[in-house]
């Protein structure tokens, strides 16, 4: 596919994925449409060669079991995450203040808070009904976190601390005491009378857009880390069904808050799936350990392009540029897991795909973030490489990527999964 086609397809995926639950469901739907069989964790799984997918809450794992796979066949795993910084709706969410109806929320993850002000926001998430069934919901634009006018705070542009409780509560309507709508009653209307509980979040409503003098950029929300999720979907679909390894795509939830959940990279989801696949192949504990040591995990998460207005925040000799290809993340303190053997594997994948890659390290005075790589590697013992597409404005409500980098990431991921 061309870079334009990949950008268009990715933009559609983002639009369908306001929350991790939606992202996992949209990934599953694309995989099922491509011939993957959806499995339930409550059922016995088939052991025959084929393509399979399973969803756990906001996480999704898919794999191709090739013909001739044995108890010691290694895995090639693309790891990503479905969640992004946002706001979660609290219990008893109605707040009535001086004629305004507001929604009580709490910050989820390391959001760049200032970018969420004065945006048209929707409410989205999952709803659990009395019979235990689960539905995904999403409203139109209903909420806004309002800035204070500069006339009332002349020093606001000199830097102002954002109080996470007082300053980030969105308005959603006019208070009921002046003829408006009650928040809880409105939510009940949206989710249905049969709903007994829900996990709801705020999400931006602005569609992804191509910008730049030549349309070379894509501006969108949730590119950290749906860029990697989308590349993983396409990569496992294109992976061969008769190779010498088992291609796996694993997208976890809760990376932005530490990953220590049943559907996070620190939880047992991937280990459960890989173990059941190996059990179906008749693997002993020794066989499984041998397979893991011969496997590779490519942890793909967005990284930072050099910022043109603040280059001092970047390493002086490693400054990833837009259009220069995906980032190979390296860290002396192992916040990223890449070492020389892993770099050789990723370099071979990029050569196979015909794309360049760029090394990324943090400047020594800034610790930077981390990824699912160290978490999954510690849990599984599988050799791991950290990569990702370069962005500007990471954790903003609206991030920026070069479309050629998006396409290059897809090519490198597909080549890695193909082996």
From TrEMBL:
UniProt keyword list: Aminopeptidase, Hydrolase, Metal-binding, Metalloprotease, Protease, Zinc
InterPro entries, alphabetized:
Peptidase_M18, Peptidase_M18_dom2
Query: Which stretches of sequence are listed as region Disordered?
Result: 303-325
What cofactor(s) does the depicted protein rely on? Zn(2+)
- Broadest EC class? hydrolase
State the EC number(s). 3.4.11.-
Q: Which SUPFAM superfamilies match?
A: Aminopeptidase/glucanase lid domain, Zn-dependent exopeptidases
Q: A GO molecular function for this record?
A: aminopeptidase activity
Q: Which family is annotated?
A: Belongs to the peptidase M18 family.
This protein's name: M18 family aminopeptidase
Originating species: Curtobacterium luteum
């Amino acid at each position: 596919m061309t870079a334009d086609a990949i950008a268009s397809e990715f933009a559609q995926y983002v639009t369908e994925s306001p929350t991790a639950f939606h992202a996992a469901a949209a990934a599953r739907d694309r995989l099922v449409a491509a011939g993957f069989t959806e499995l339930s964790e409550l059922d016995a799984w088939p052991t025959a060669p084929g393509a399979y997918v399973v969803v756990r809450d906001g996480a999704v794992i898919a794999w191709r079991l090739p013909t001739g796979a044995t108890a010691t066949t290694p895995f090639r795993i693309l790891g990503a995450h479905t969640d992004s910084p946002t706001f979660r709706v609290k219990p008893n969410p109605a707040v009535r203040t001086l004629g305004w109806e507001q929604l009580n929320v709490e910050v989820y993850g390391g959001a760049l808070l200032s970018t969420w002000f004065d945006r048209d926001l929707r409410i989205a998430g999952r709803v659990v009904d009395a019979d235990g069934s689960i539905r995904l919901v999403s409203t139109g634009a209903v909420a806004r976190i309002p800035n204070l006018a500069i006339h009332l705070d002349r020093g606001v542009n000199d830097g102002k601390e954002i109080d996470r409780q007082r300053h980030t509560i969105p308005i959603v309507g006019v208070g009921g005491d002046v003829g408006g709508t009650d928040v809880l009653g409105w939510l009940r209307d949206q989710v249905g009378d049969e709903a007994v509980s829900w996990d709801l979040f705020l999400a931006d409503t602005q569609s992804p857009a191509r910008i730049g003098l030549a349309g070379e950029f894509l501006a969108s929300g949730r590119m950290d880390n749906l860029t990697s999720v989308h590349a993983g979907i396409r990569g496992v679909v294109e992976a061969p069904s008769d190779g010498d390894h088992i291609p796996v795509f694993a997208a976890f939830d809760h990376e932005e808050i530490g990953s220590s959940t049943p559907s996070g990279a620190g939880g047992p989801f991937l280990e459960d799936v890989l173990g059941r696949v190996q059990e179906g192949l008749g693997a002993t504990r020794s066989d499984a350990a041998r397979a893991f040591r011969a496997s590779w995990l490519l942890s793909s998460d967005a990284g930072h392009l050099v910022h043109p207005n603040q280059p001092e925040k970047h390493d002086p000799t490693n400054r990833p540029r837009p259009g220069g290809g995906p980032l190979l993340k390296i860290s002396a303190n192992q916040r990223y897991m890449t070492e020389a053997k892993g770099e050789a594997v990723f370099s071979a994948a990029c050569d196979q795909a015909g794309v360049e890659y760029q090394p990324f390290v943090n400047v020594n005075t800034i610790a930077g973030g981390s990824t699912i790589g160290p978490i999954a590697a510690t849990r599984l013992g599988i050799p791991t490489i950290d990569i990702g597409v370069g962005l500007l404005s990471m954790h903003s409500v609206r991030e920026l990527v070069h479309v050629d980098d998006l396409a290059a990431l897809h090519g490198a991921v597909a080549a890695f999964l193909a082996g």
